[in-house]
Amino acid sequence: MAAGVVLLAATPARPAPPRVLVVTYSAGYQHDVVRRPAPAEPSTVERVLADLGRHSGSFDVTLVAAREELDRLTVASVRAHRAMVFFTTGELPIALAVRQAIFQSVRDGGGFVGVHSATDTWYTIPEYRELLGAAFDGHPWHQRVRLVVEDRAHPATRQLGDAFEITDEIYQFRDWSRSQVHVLLRLDPHSVDARRGKRADGDYALAWTKAYGRGRVIYTALGHEPAVWADGRFQEHLLGAIRWALGGA
Ligand SMILES: [Zn+2]
Of 56, 117, 126, 189, which has the most beta carbons under 10 Å away? Predict the structure, then answer.
């Protein structure tokens, strides 16, 4: 017995990295970046997130993209994850108890990372809107744009400088209020034809954080284009977002 104790004390096991639940099921429009080339082959989003977690040693992923994977989620399996990443669309067919566990685990201090069409999801669930802080309201622009970095200290944006240019599909939102969120990135309205957007004030936030209970919610509207997922700046942005959501950054 004593030898066993000594052995354990001499070679302390490194704790396993926290697990992140990555949900890329599309109940509505399916983006190319979440389409698996074959059932057992990860999509672009899954591969990039798994690699970011593995290479940084920050987290391991559980991948949920197919309907049968979604159906296998339980209250216990959801709660075994310290954070979730959603790149989803439409009305996700998740059982009520599991859905409530998703919201409760964030309220209890978990992390939630919404990416791109996460805002184009669960329009019928007010609780989800409250968690994320906005609903998708079209994409007036799909072009090269300039983004202003409002928070240069946040782990998700501190590597991006004052501003940067990127080519992507650019969302606008409804049910969004600057007073309810902490803005990380906003569109420079001078970099687009602002008349195509709906906001008179030109205030198009494209990434923010938000409190939800004791949880950490972060959203980035970027990520439509495959080239964005291959862009090291976006990958750093995501890694910072996930680490922050995990509470470690
Ligand atoms: Zn899109």
Answer: 117
